[in-house]
Amino acid sequence: MTRAHTVPENDASALEADLSGTAAFDATGDHAAMPSWDELVREHGDRVYRLAYRLSGNAQDAEDLTQETFIRVFRSLQNYQPGTFEGWLHRITTNLFLDMVRRRNRIRMEALPEDYDRVPAAGPNPEEIYHDARLGADLQSALDSLGPEYRAAVVLCDIEGLSYEEIGATLGVKLGTVRSRIHRGRQALREYLREHGKVENGRVDAG
Question: Between the CA of residue 33 and those of 17, 21, 131, what are the distances in Å?
């Protein structure tokens, strides 16, 4: 549900004086406070890239998703209804990721010969095993092993800290579906880490 904004004109002016960039725009809905491209990227670029990387597990895909997210956001600013700007970014980034996965799967299946035999994938390249200090390569590999819908739900919940309700709104699914995907995704993560020797006595080795 879109949050209603009934800020008196003089209060809105005072609020804009205290806020800047997307914060002022989101708080007042005033198009005069609409952020520039540079403000969008400066304030939200790192956050969007981190989410895109966690979802895709690949630096090049993360860069492409980040770029496309900001293009979509900037083109849609005129029609944005004030609410939760970060939630809007989550939704656009996640949906672009899911669209990318579906498109690639469709192209891959259309290109396969009838006598195709599945072969093991090549080992990860340096970009695919890149990780920052907050989340180790083992956990990223475990995330990459999940199906895209489960990966999105787990990343949004356990890394981005969204509530089940926010995840449901982001993914466009019911609350029960969110709970199921998170539960099954966490189970699959733990099984993957256990199989690879990264879980001992119920604890995860993030190194």
Answer: 10, 7, 36
In sequence order, what are the beta bridge partners of 204?
A: 199
Q: Are 24 and 33 in contact (CB under 8 A)?
A: yes
Cα separation, 97 vs 94, in Å, equals 5
CB-CB contact of 154 with 185 (8 Å)? yes
pTM of structure: 0.66
DSSP 158: I
CA-CA distance, 54 to 49, in Å (whole number)? 9
Per domain, the residue ranges of the chain are 19-118, 134-200
Q: Is the dihedral of CA 77, 83, 86, 89 positive or negative?
A: negative
Q: Which of 201, 181, 199, 178 is nearest to 190 (CA)?
A: 199
Q: Whole-angstrom Cα distance, residue 201 to residue 194?
A: 10
**Residue closest to 155 by CA, chosen among 126, 175, 181, 124:** 181
pLDDT tens track for 87-134: 889 999 999 999 999 888 766 544 444 443 433 333 333 333 333 434
Q: Give 46-82 pLDDT, tens digit per residue.
A: 999 999 999 999 899 999 999 999 999 888 888 777 7
33-44: average pLDDT = 83
Class of domain 19-118: mainly alpha
Domain 134-200 class, CATH top level: mainly alpha
